[in-house]
Every structure is written in structure tokens, then in C-alpha cells.
């Protein structure tokens, strides 16, 4: 499952960050997930519950901020509103997704010795 591999990659990153800072535990992980990223946030939380046991994240809380999708025109940068036809009203060009497809590790809170 997609979400499981995301969490595995994420936890590998968190663990290497924790090692770098000689942290003994991770308290909180904050993620930003674009609503167009194709990631199910509930599945992501379930995957985290599965993998955190026995890891440095076993006490960690995970928070997920959903980033709304945003489109703009590649020619004139005009914002194209979601729900409309995704064409720039001026240039008639198809809009490009400029936000909302990210999977971003925003913040890690950890406790050092
Ligand atoms: Zn335009």
C-alpha cells in the first residue's frame, strides 16, 4: 500500500534526524499533505500506528495538515479557482497545479538526553 511505504520512508527520515540530534524519543511529527497528493490521511495514521511500536516514534503523536489544491496559469500566473474549468480565463491555457500535491515533513519535536 502507498501509505505504508510513505510512512516507512518518513520514519526512516525521522530516525536519522533523531540520531543526528542524539534524541532519545520523538514527541510529535507534523506533516503537510496536499489534498491532490492521492494520500489517504486516515490510512497514513493507521500505517503510523502499525510502524511506530518499538521505534523511536513509539510515543510520538502525528498531526496532518491538509493543504488545499491551488492552480494557476503557466503563462500569466493568474490563480485559477478549483471547481471551475481549469483553464486560464485570459489565456485559455490549462492551469497548472501549484499546491496540493505535496507530502511534506513539516516539523519533528524530539527529546534529547
Ligand atoms: Zn493566463
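^ Assign residues to that structure.
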Amino acid at each position: 500500500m502507498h501509505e505504508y511505504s510513505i510512512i516507512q520512508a518518513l520514519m526512516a527520515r525521522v530516525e536519522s534526524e533523531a540520531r543526528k540530534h542524539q534524541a532519545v524519543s520523538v514527541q510529535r511529527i507534523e506533516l503537510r499533505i496536499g489534498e491532490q497528493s492521492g494520500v489517504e490521511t486516515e490510512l497514513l495514521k493507521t500505517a503510523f500506528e502499525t510502524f511506530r511500536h518499538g521505534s523511536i516514534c513509539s510515543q510520538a503523536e502525528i498531526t496532518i495538515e491538509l493543504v488545499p489544491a491551488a492552480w494557476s496559469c503557466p503563462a500569466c500566473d493568474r490563480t485559477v479557482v478549483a471547481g471551475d474549468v481549469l483553464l486560464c480565463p485570459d489565456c485559455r491555457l490549462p492551469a497548472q497545479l501549484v499546491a496540493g500535491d505535496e507530502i511534506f515533513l513539516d516539523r519533528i519535536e524530539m527529546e534529547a538526553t
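Strands lie at 23-34, 61-67, 70-72, 79-80, 96-99, 103-112.
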